UniProtKB/TrEMBL annotation:
The lineage of its organism: Eukaryota, Viridiplantae, Streptophyta, Embryophyta, Tracheophyta. Coiled coil: none annotated. One of its GO terms (molecular function) is ADP-ribose diphosphatase activity. This is Nudix hydrolase domain-containing protein. It comes from the Eukaryota. It comes from Aegilops tauschii subsp. strangulata. SUPFAM superfamilies: Nudix.
Length: 88
């Protein structure tokens, strides 16, 4: 969801050995992605966002039947049509 300021890559020799832009399909096949459950979930969210199928958490105002008080419940919606989602 981020956009680069430029396509030039400045390699920091103390931090990384190689840096390059690559297609998303190639990136998600990297072993460090495949072996890390949390990173896989992050990539799933990013891919869904690119496909305009993920709007993030949406605030929903609800009233409790127990005490009548209004609360805000945050959750993911099933379909992007369910909310005003601009995934441009």
């Amino acid at each position: 969801m981020l956009r680069p300021l430029s396509s030039a890559i400045k390699i920091d020799e103390t931090e990384i050995q190689a840096a390059k832009w690559m297609p998303l399909e190639e990136f998600v096949k990297q072993p460090f992605i495949q072996e890390d459950h949390m990173f896989q979930k992050i990539m799933d969210i990013c891919i869904q966002r690119l496909r305009k199928c993920y709007c993030g958490l949406t605030a929903h105002n609800v009233v409790s039947k127990f005490d009548g008080r209004q609360s805000t419940l945050y959750y993911n919606v099933g379909e992007p049509e369910d909310v005003n989602c601009d995934a441009a």
